[in-house]
Amino acid sequence: MEHPTGDAAARPESTPSRLSNPRWRPATEDRPVLLPLIALGLAAVLVFPPAVPLVLLLAGAVALTFRDPERAVVRRPGVALAPADGRVIHVDRVWDAYWQTELVEVGVFLALWDVHVQRSPLGGEVVARHRRAGDYRPAMSRAATHGNNQLATYLRTAAGPCVVTQISGLLARRIVSWVPPGTRLTQGERLGTIRFGSQVTLRLPATATVVVDVGDRVRAGLTPVAELEVEAPAPRFPAT
Question: Which CATH class is domain 68-227?
Answer without folding.
Answer: mainly beta
